[in-house]
TrEMBL record:
Residue ranges annotated for the Bacterial bifunctional deaminase-reductase C-terminal domain, each copy included: 26-119
Pfam families noted in UniProt: RibD_C (PF01872)
Superkingdom of the source species: Bacteria
InterPro entries: DHFR-like_dom_sf (IPR024072), RibDG_C (IPR002734)
SUPFAM superfamilies hit by this protein: Dihydrofolate reductase-like
Organism name: Arsenicicoccus piscis
Protein name: Bacterial bifunctional deaminase-reductase C-terminal domain-containing protein
Amino acid sequence: MATGSNPTRSNPTHSYPHTEETAMSKLIYAMNMTLDGYVADEHGAVDLVPMNADVFADHTELHRSIGTILYGRRLYETMAVWETDPELAATSPAMADFSAAWKRPVKIVYSTTLTTPITDNTRIEPALDIEQVRTLKRTTAGIS
C-alpha cells in the first residue's frame, strides 16, 4: 500500500509530487503482477515480473514519493536486502538509487512472528489496524 499526495503521471519522469495543500495522504496499493494476474510463481517467489531499466526507474521514482510503507512479513523480508546487502546497491548506479529510495521511508511491518526489525526506520506491529492507517493518512506525507 502506498500513499503520496495526488501523484501525477503527466510527464515521462513519472514524478509523484507532494503539495502542502493536500489535506490527507493518498493511499496507493501497489503490486507487481503478470498479464494473466499472477503475483507469485508456484513456489511463492515474487520476482516473476521482468524488470527492465524503465520499469526499475519508475519503481525508484515511486519509492522517492513514499513517506511510509506498510508491509506484510514476507514482502518486507524480501525487500530488506536493499538495506541489509550493500553489495546489491553497489552493482550499478540504478541499484544504488533504488536502495537509497527504499531506505528513506518509514516501514511498518505487520507480523505475528517477527518481533525485531532487520532494517532501520522500521517498526513491527502484530496486526493491521485500520484506524492506525487512517491516522497515518491524516498525519504523514505519504503511506505506501
